Amino acid sequence: YLPTIYGITPTYSRLAQKADLTRLSQTLMHVKNFHWVVIEDSTEKTKLVANLLKESNLKYTHLNIKTHRTKHSTVMDINICLFKTSLYNTSWYCPYWRTNKGKKLLASGVEQRNLALDWLKGYLQKAEDTRGVVYFMDDDNTYSLKVFDEMRKVKNVGVWPVGIVGGMRVEMPLVTDGKVSGYNAWWKPFRPFPIDMAGFAINATLFLEHPEAKFSRKVQSGFQESEILKYFATKDDLEPLADNCTKVYVWHTRTQKPSILNPKKLKRPPVPDDH
Ligand code: UDP
Ligand code: MN
């Protein structure tokens, strides 16, 4: 028996989107009993994502919701935005809540992951078999097939190391006598759970028992993981996986923003769009 893995992936339109989603979908083709929930950060579903999902032969659910950039931003977000803007000496206006260096000021994926959780609860209520595990998967990370084997062992909440994140080669829970005794995190080590989104999975049935569990815009950056985990576990309950958190099976890789020359300015034949 293999519990279903519900992989929840927010995604947004950008030059490397199709490349990132192609790599991820082709990893997922090797994973048994996998249900991919892809949520576009957009007002409409795009053809690019719809076609990619259809051609993948994966079991999937395609959703969309646009990030509410101003309405749900907190006073803190706005203050940080204004502070960083003055720091980087850009105009006072913060388009898309990013600095001129492209650094994010607003957490990504909050509305998208919450929509996926609402979908999941509705789906499981009607399902015959509610067993499964929820994994929040960013679209540009790198996933070993071994991480999926690990998360099927989850009873409530399982955790494991994540490579290349938070200024470290590996951010990981520290394990003593088979229990999480602390963390090696360097970035915001005061986080209640200093764990990246890619470093844990949660028993899907628990979302029916805690329907209020969701991500929030009211917390500072880096606290989304803690926000969702607090509904399901304390440090003492965490189940260390990946050989007592000694193995790295997922990496927080980030795709470099490509710079493309304007084809109108180059006297060259036009190139087709990548979709
Ligand atoms: N994302 C999104 N809308 C955005 C920015 C990001 O839906 O405006 C998605 C993105 O596709 C990814 C997840 O949210 O699946 C995390 O974003 P990103 O990879 O940019 O975060 P980082 O790697 O910087 O932590
Ligand atoms: Mn990323």
Description:
With 275 residues, the protein is α/β, with parallel strands linked by helices. It has eight helices and 13 strands. The protein has helices at residues 17-28, 47-56, 75-88, 110-126, 145-151, 206-209, 224-229, 242-245, and strands at 4-11, 34-40, 59-64, 132-136, 142-143, 157-159, 162-165, 168-171, 173-176, 179-183, 200-203, 239-240, 250-251. The strands form four sheets. It has a seven-stranded mixed beta sheet, sandwiched between helices. A two-stranded antiparallel sheet has the order 5-13. Helix 1 packs parallel to helix 2 (47-56). The radius of gyration is 19 Å and the shape is globular. The chain binds uridine-5'-diphosphate and manganese (II) ion. Residues 9-12, 41, 67, 108-109, 112, 138-140, 254 line the site of uridine-5'-diphosphate (UDP). Manganese (II) ion binds next to loops.
Give the mean pLDDT: 90
Number of helices: 8
Bound molecules: uridine-5'-diphosphate, manganese (II) ion
Shape: globular
**Class by SSE composition:** alpha/beta
Our estimate of the beta-strand percent is: 15-25%
Number of strands: 13
- How would a textbook summarize the main sheet? 7 strands, mixed
Flag low-confidence runs: 88-96
Helix content: 25-40%
| Euclidean distance between termini CA atoms | 38 Å
Give, in spatial order, the strands making up the sheet with the most strands.
3-2-1-4-11-6-12
Radius of gyration: 19 Å
The helix-strand sequence is: EHEHEHHEEHEEEEEEHHEHE
